Amino acid sequence: MENSSYIQSKEGLVKNDEVDLRELFIFIWSKKLLIALITSIISIAVVIYALQLPNIYKAEALLSPAEQQQNNGLASLAGQFGGIANLAGVDLGGSSSSSKTGLAIEVLKSRKFSSKFIEQHDILKDLMAVKEWDLYQNKITYDKEIFNTETQEWVREVKLPFKAKPSMQEAYIKLQEAMSVELDPDTGMIKLSVEHYSPYIAKNWVDWLVTDINEVMRIRDVDEAQKSTLFLTQQIQNTEISNMKSILFTLLEEQAKIIMFANVRTEYVFKTVDPAIVPEKKFKPRRSLICILGFLAGLLLSLFIVSVMYLSSNPEESINEHTNG
C-alpha cells in the first residue's frame, strides 16, 4: 500500500513511521499563507526591535610600550649584583618593557583602578544610566527610572543587597563590558577601545584611561624606587667595606635614574601611536544583519509549526478489508 500511514504485515496492520516527503511538501505548500503570515509577523517585530536599538560608537587608540631607557644599565647590573639587589628589595630584572606592559594591562583591568577612574572622572551616571544620545544636539538622555536629572538622584528600584545608586562592583562590571584591551603578540602593540552611546564620551574615556594608567604606573615605580633609595642609603652608612659601598652606590644611581625618567616622561608605560578620535560611524547594532536573521528565524519557525501540524494531523487511510494471514 503505497504512501500510506499503515502497512500490511503477517501480524496485521502496522503503523508506518516514515514520513512521505512528497506529502509533506504538498502540505507545506498548502499552508504557504500561514507560513508567510508567521514569517511576516516575526520579521516586522524584529525590524521594530532593531530600529529601537540605540547606536553604539567605538573609540580606540593604538599604543606601544614605552621604551625603558634604563633597561640596558639595569640588565648589565642584574648579572653582577642580582643577588644583592634582591636582598635590598631592588628590582633589576623586572623593569623590562614586556613585563611592565603586562603589569600595566592587568592594572588597567583591575577593580581598584576602575573604581578610582570612575570616581575621579565622575562618570557613574554616564556609565550606568544613559538611555540614548542625540546626534543633532550632542546631548545625553538618561533613563528616568534609573537617574533623576532634575534632583541629581538615583531612583532605580532594586532589591537588597543592591541600592538605588549603583555600587562600584556593578560599575566595574559595566566598565569592563564597555572597555577592551587587546595585545598583539606579534607586534607588541596595544589597542585600547571604549564603546558608548556617545562618540564624544567614548573618545574622552580612552584618553583618560591612557593618561591615568601612565600616571598610576609612574607613581608606582617612583614609590618603589624611593623606598629602595632609602634602604640603600642606610646600608651605605652602615657598611665599612669599600667594595660593598661601590656596589650599593651603583644600585643607588640606578634608582635615581628610575625616578628621573618617571618625572620627565608623561607617557611612562604606553606611548600613543594613533590617538582616539570621535567616531563618525556607529559600531553597532548591525540592523540589516539583525533583520535578515529575524526573517530567517521567522521562516524556520513557521516551517517547524507547519511540520508539526502535518505530523499531528496526517490522515490515516481507511482499511475496508482485512485479510488474516
TrEMBL record:
Protein location: Cell membrane
Pfam families from the UniProt entry: Wzz (PF02706)
Transmembrane regions: 33-51, 289-311
Keyword list, A-Z: Cell membrane, Membrane, Transmembrane, Transmembrane helix
Keyword Amino-acid biosynthesis (UniProt): no
InterPro entries in UniProt: Bact_polysacc_biosynth/exp (IPR050445), LPS_length_determ_N (IPR003856)
Chief location category: membrane
Record keyword Disulfide bond present: no
Membrane association type: Multi-pass membrane protein
Domain Polysaccharide chain length determinant N-terminal: 17-120
Record protein name field: Wzz/FepE/Etk N-terminal domain-containing protein
Organism: Pseudoalteromonas distincta
